[in-house]
Write a structure and sequence with these properties.
With 269 residues, the chain is an alpha+beta fold. It has one domain: 4-Layer Sandwich (Deoxyribonuclease I, Chain A), CATH 3.60.10.10. The chain has 6 helices and 12 strands. A 7-stranded mixed sheet has the order 1-11-12-2-3-5-4, covered by helices on one side. Helix 4 packs parallel to helix 5. The longest helix has 16 residues. The radius of gyration is 17 Å and the shape is globular. Keywords: Endonuclease, Hydrolase, Nuclease. GO terms for molecular function: endonuclease activity. One of its GO terms (biological process) is GPI anchor biosynthetic process. This is Endonuclease.
């Protein structure tokens, strides 16, 4: 992104604050819908440089999601130890992790953790994404509230542009080799560019035109739409916004991205 484009994005972020309010997708306003979120927790290191997992848990409590995908929830190297108190998170929020095969001390798969409140997990796949960095995706098939067949893919794409393109192609290949069903793809894609070389453009073949970008990074004054939630059916996502609170601006360098999923739109089942 050029300096002029960054300046334009910063000005737009200041002017367009309608999507930067405290959880505009409140539970009492959901009308039977489901709230999903994607949140890069930056290894629980906030914008003030402090390691503080308690703040991350509190932000998740503020959001009160039905499903949330976390990135960077484990240490990157060594034993990849998990950084959050998952038993406490389940006690306070009802969120429990989708089961994965992992190292004894880690939470998820290459830093990706997918948590949900209600439903039955039918299948889980852990996908290693290509590239120089240890990136991955979790693919979970979940039945929610007597509705069958929602596929959720939680992913964290790499910092290198060529790797993101390959990683997007891998995700498309995964979808192509499985039964067609309503699918949500969410995570930190580290991509703001569009055009033929963009990983985002590659995903349009399955997920259609991209939703309007919502800046989520950096948390203090977001100008880049690095975090994304997209669906392979046009009526599945009813609304999107960032969760912008004083605590969220400090807890991580990303703001959480939220999406209201319309369970009554005929997309599920």
């Amino acid at each position: 992104m050029t300096r002029n484009n960054l300046a334009s994005a910063a000005i737009a972020a200041i002017k367009n604050r309608s999507n930067r309010i405290h959880n505009p997708l409140m539970r009492e306003e959901r009308d039977g819908s489901m709230l999903v979120a994607s949140y890069n927790v930056h290894k629980c290191v906030g914008t003030d440089g402090r390691f503080d997992p308690e703040r991350i848990i509190e932000v998740i409590r503020e959001i009160d999601p039905d499903v949330i995908a976390l990135q960077e929830a484990d240490q990157r190297f060594g034993e990849r130890s998990g950084l959050l108190d998952l038993p406490r998170l389940r006690l306070e929020t009802g969120l429990m992790p989708v089961p994965v095969l992992h190292k004894p001390k880690s939470h998820g798969w290459r830093g990706n953790v997918l948590l949900f409140k209600e439903g039955v997990v039918r299948d889980v796949h852990q996908i290693a994404l290509p590239g120089l960095e240890p990136r991955g995706a979790l693919v979970a098939e979940i039945d929610l509230e007597a509705r069958e067949g929602l596929r959720i893919i939680a992913a964290h794409l790499g910092l290198l542009r060529w790797a993101r393109r390959q990683q997007a192609d891998t995700i498309l290949d995964i979808i192509g080799r499985r039964e067609e069903r309503p699918t949500l793809l969410m995570g930190d894609f580290n991509e703001w560019r569009l055009g033929p070389g963009s990983a985002l453009t590659r995903l349009e073949s399955v997920f259609g035109p991209l939703p309007a970008p919502i800046p989520s990074y950096p948390a203090g004054m977001p100008v880049l739409s690095l975090d994304r939630i997209m669906a392979n059916r046009a009526d599945l996502i009813a609304e999107m916004a960032v969760h912008d609170t004083p605590l969220a601006r400090k807890a991580s360098d990303h703001l959480p991205l939220l999406a209201k999923i319309d369970l009554g739109a005929g997309s599920l089942g």
